[in-house]
Amino acid sequence: MTSKTRIPIKLQINGHRHELEVEPRVTLLDALRDHLGLTGTKKGCDQGQCGACTVHIDGQRVLACLTLAAQAEGRAIRSIEGLADGDGTLHAVQAAFLEQDAFQCGYCTPGQIMSAVACIREGHAGSDDEIREYMAGNLCRCGAYPHIVAAVRQAALEIASSTETAS
């Protein structure tokens, strides 16, 4: 009987440090879900085609199913569980998704929200067409796309207005 090779890794997720021993082939998605119990990030296609597993690494959106956990070591990872404020106040995108009814079954919603945050932060929310283009990598089997675009537009306006107010 041969033992599987395991490697120690340290992950910084949602501001918390986690030490794990995983096989080198373990994806960030599986590390989040199976090793740390952070099940908000969803496993959809497991091939990088649906966007359900979208998280942020060092502020950039990535597909956790295509990223090895070891590749994320030493980098700041943010999953959907780390998006709201510590006091439970929802991020503007989360609140807009609720207000615009931008989900039906909810399975794709965490990935949609994480992509929407990046869309706004990267300045790709200037028009509905631009939002649709940026969000094209996130699939919604229920077809809530018009509501998703409306939520991104609403959140982008709210974030811009709060940034102007803070200045």
Automatic annotation (TrEMBL):
Chain ranges of the 2Fe-2S ferredoxin-type domain: 7-83
Enzyme kind, highest EC tier: oxidoreductase
InterPro entries assigned: 2Fe-2S-bd (IPR002888), 2Fe-2S-bd_dom_sf (IPR036884), 2Fe-2S_ferredoxin-like_sf (IPR036010), 2Fe-2S_ferredoxin-type (IPR001041), 2Fe2S_fd_BS (IPR006058), Aldehyde_Oxdr_Iron-Sulfur (IPR052914), Beta-grasp_dom_sf (IPR012675)
Keywords in alphabetical order: Iron, Metal-binding, Oxidoreductase
Coiled-coil ranges (or none): none
PANTHER family referenced in this protein's UniProt entry, alphabetically: OXIDOREDUCTASE WITH IRON-SULFUR SUBUNIT, OXIDOREDUCTASE, IRON-SULPHUR BINDING SUBUNIT-RELATED-RELATED
UniProt-listed Enzyme Commission number(s): 1.17.1.4
Protein name in UniProt: Xanthine dehydrogenase iron-sulfur subunit
Name of a matching Pfam family: Fer2
GO molecular function: xanthine dehydrogenase activity
SUPFAM superfamilies attached to this UniProt entry: 2Fe-2S ferredoxin-like, CO dehydrogenase ISP C-domain like
Keyword Ribonucleoprotein carried by entry: no
